[in-house]
Amino acid sequence: MPTGLIYVLYFILPYISLVVLVVGVLYRIGLWLAAGKGPLGLYLGLHRLVVKPRQEGYLSAAGHILARMFTYYTILKTSYRRDYATWLGVALFHWGIFLLIAFHLHLWLPQLTVPEPLMFIMGTTVGSVTLAAGVYLLVRRVNIQRVYSVTINYLDDYVAVSWVILIVTLGLALRLTAPPSLFNEAVKWALGLTSFKYAPPPSNPLFYAHVLAVELFMVYIPFAKMIHPFSMPVNPALYGRFEDIEEVRRRVMDKLGW
Amino acid sequence: MVNVKVRYRGEGKDILEASPRYSEWVKEFSGGSGHVKARVERDEKTLSTIEMGKLMRINPNATERERKLYFVRRIGELARSSRAFRNYMESCTHCGFCIDKCQMWLATRDPNNSPVGRADLVRNIYRRMRRLTYGLIDKLSDEKELESIIDSVDLDKIWTYYYQCTECRRCAYFCPFGIDQAEVTRSIRQIFVEMGMMPPFIAKTMECVYKTGNNMCITRDAALNVIDFVVNEISEQTGKRMEGVVDKDKADVLYIPSSTDFFTNIGTLKGAIAIMTELGLNWTMDSQSLEVANFGLFEDEYHLRRFGDNIVNAALRRKAKVVVFGECGHGWRAFKNYVVPRLAEHGIEGISITQLTAWAIKKGKLRFSKKVDAVVTYHDPCNLVRAGDLVEEPRLILKSTVKEFREREHNRERTLCCGAGGGLLLDELMPLRVWAGWPSVYDAYRTGAQYMVAPCSIDKAQFPVVIEYHKVPLKFRGVSDFVYAALYGVDIDAV
């Protein structure tokens, strides 16, 4: 690949990707917040849209939101059956991605000594599980339309999960075929980014493809449905609280002279 | 028909096939439910009474094209003015998890009748309005571009399916993102009201509220007659002389009944009068506010607030310290989330009669002479449990008043709607209603209970019809009915 192109794709584009990701996500969240509740500061006449009973404090609301974001527990709630398969696919896919991102932070923390065999096993195991879960979710997405005789998927719905599958596949292939020296070269490149000093990336086609796929995905995230992780904290059905019913009971008892 | 069977563990049949009238379902819904449509009110007098002229934002003689353009433009306005609407339009990942959680889909198996299918009828318009790709560039289409979208807008289809949503919020509970299709439905119906469209049953019911303060057009004299009859019957059944107090100048407690308690749900009215009397409360009803229901919740914000303010004004008239709200589901949602904060501005508390009764039981203030010899199961009204923070109190009451209480499989936040909520208690929707209520009735039937109980007026109107249609050996009663029966050892069927 020409040196100029490498410089643009692997030294300039990372910064652009990061800015678009952060600014784009903040902008989308800002648009939701700016939309406001509704006329007269009510949700079409209602003070709150909280769906969960006994949500009496902002802390419990935050806990509920975090539980939805990281445990996906509503998928396990029974409605004629428990959808264990979907929950497992969703949990493994998302947690796989979280772990893979965490593992990649090692590029910026090379002082953290992790034996190469351990890195290899952890990376390839989590990567494989994430890939399998991603493929399962893609197949499920296609199958749902057949099972329920419904057309609900937009192009974007296929693109998002397929893109992540592509990134994970490229990453796994890289991990399985990369020479031992690649990690140190990658560390130099990564540290170069954070110190704004260009260090060439490892000269490896799979590395180029994997990183480019990630960069372009970061640009894509603020658009369309990839914004979904950030929607829950600003969903009025999830945040908000009811009155403390024990407090209400005490006041009523007091007023009735009980 | 669909490839997927929805069935209980251990049962081979789909829940629809479990009904003895399944062959009629096949005839009715094999091709979907798009043929079951709510009508539109045309009576000028009714529309005038309920102030539709004030709410309409479009020329009554607008062409179809103008109506579509207005609809599309309002979708864009909602994106700016409603955080909930915008969030739900943009955060759906089309996982399809909500499809078999919606009992309207369970009842009809029509994909447009699933939360995601229903939302996409509007989302397909919304997406085309965003420049570039769906959301980041926040510039809605200009007039010319809107014109190019409107040819694809099918207002009739949107009206049809948005009057097949009961606003029960089961979708919001199960959706991983908490997308609340009920709120999208309320937003779209708000637009329809602005276009002068409302089903006749809802419009005429609202007209009654304007005229008499309640849904059933009960005048003060008629209410007093019914109360007179009720206290006489209480006296015959219990030997106790009670009083159904109306329009007392000053009382600690203002009780708001359902107007249907003066007709078909007399047992609930008896229960309420008995509870107030046994607790020795200084209480009253208000003849201009004999209504817990609030059909504004189904239609538009203006009516929701207007009917909610009826209760606030009644509380101020009666100088009440506490407003006790009778048995109603959707009304409780409007009460809890609009009226109670308004009452709080005047230092007045607002609670449910089930809360009052449960707290009284815990304090030992209500003593039951004989538990009702019956096996009951409790149906959680959706608006109590998924919008009203009211879950355990009715259970405590039933466990205190009946010999055997059994939980249904789909209880609490997983409750199945009656199928007639959200303004769907319309005669023209009856083919849909009798199947929409079936999942919940079947859920109750499977417990082996004799009675299905819920503190909700629409449930009391809907479930007996569904039970009768499917020939299920179940009876349906309110919670306060059992309180009355247990207080005085009266046969529940005689209440």
Topology:
The complex is a heterodimer of chains A (258) and B (495).
Chain A lengths: L2 H32 L23 H14 L12 H21 L11 H32 L7 H23 L4 H13 L10 H16 L24 H12 L2
Chain B lengths: L21 H8 L14 H6 L2 H4 L8 H18 L1 H8 L12 H6 L6 H15 L13 H8 L4 H8 L7 H5 L6 H14 L5 H13 L7 H19 L14 E4 L9 H13 L4 E2 L11 H4 L1 H17 L4 E4 L4 H15 L4 E4 H10 L9 E7 L3 H4 L7 H9 E5 L23 H7 L1 H8 L5 E3 L3 H13 L5 E3 L1 H10 L7
Parallel strand pairs in B: 1-2, 1-3, 3-4, 5-6, 5-7, 7-8
Main traits of this protein?
heterodimer, A: 258 residues, mainly alpha, 0% strand, B: alpha/beta, four-stranded parallel sheet
Structure commentary:
The complex is a heterodimer of chains A (258) and B (495). Chain A starts with a helix and ends with a helix. Chain A contains eight helices and no strands. Chain A is mainly α. Chain A has helices at 3-34, 58-71, 84-104, 116-147, 155-177, 182-194, 205-220, 245-256. With 495 residues, chain B is an alpha/beta fold. The longest helix of chain B has 19 residues, at 220-238. The model of chain B has no long low-confidence stretch (mean pLDDT 94). Chains A and B meet through helix 1, helix 4, helix 5 and helix 8 of A and helix 4, helix 5, helix 7, helix 10 and helix 11 of B.
Order of helices and strands of chain A: HHHHHHHH
Strand order of the largest sheet of chain B: 2-1-3-4
Biggest sheet character of chain A: none
Task: Give the proportion of residues in helices of chain B.
Answer: 40-55%
Point out poorly predicted stretches of chain A: none
Shape summary of chain A: elongated
